[in-house]
Specification:
With 173 residues, the chain is mainly α. It has eight helices and two strands; from the N terminus they run ββαααααααα.
């Protein structure tokens, strides 16, 4: 029952084309899904499902992708992945919500088989709004100051900066 193959896993994409607007791609692979070395997955010897969902949310954020653009050209290997700073999980309200959003975006419906307890973390969300909220939470968790937001949100592959700023205000009020 502890074999990684028998459980859902947080997966990152190894191969990234140099012209791709995103450099860090993370997802949840359902249980019983075989993966190759081009889809390395994370093992969590400590940390329950909310921690895994939090890490998925951080890896899926525009802030993490921006860090990826600093280091990745064609491959996201474990050496590069380990150099991306991931804030420690403290189970505060923002981090819990980030994990809920990540789970909701990763597992879209109850009909999705093989995701086990990931269904329990989901909340009803509008995907476009959820991505902006996830990015806003990640920017606050990383401690990105307001004046650096345009540096990160200068790509059409990311949510509009105005939406992210609206969610940041919501979470700092």
């Amino acid at each position: 029952t502890t074999l990684p193959l028998l459980n859902p896993r947080v997966v990152v994409r190894d191969v990234v084309h140099s012209t791709n607007p995103r450099k860090v791609w993370a997802a949840v692979a359902p249980a019983r899904t075989l993966l190759t070395n081009k889809a390395p997955y994370l093992l969590f010897p400590r940390g329950d499902l909310p921690v895994q969902a939090y890490v998925l949310g951080i890896l899926g954020s525009s802030v993490c992708d921006w860090f990826g653009h600093l280091r990745i050209n064609l491959n996201l290997n474990f050496f590069i992945l380990n150099s991306i700073p991931i804030p420690r999980y403290q189970a505060d309200e923002r981090q819990v919500r980030l994990g809920e959003l990540a789970a909701s975006l990763a597992v879209r419906s109850e009909a999705d088989k093989g995701y086990g307890a990931w269904h329990e973390l989901r909340t009803p969300v509008d995907p476009s709004s959820a991505i902006a909220e996830l990015d806003a939470l990640a920017s606050l968790i990383f401690g990105v100051p307001d004046d650096l937001l345009p540096t990160i949100w200068n790509s059409p592959s990311r949510p509009p900066l105005a939406e992210v700023q609206t969610w940041r205000k919501h979470w700092t009020a």
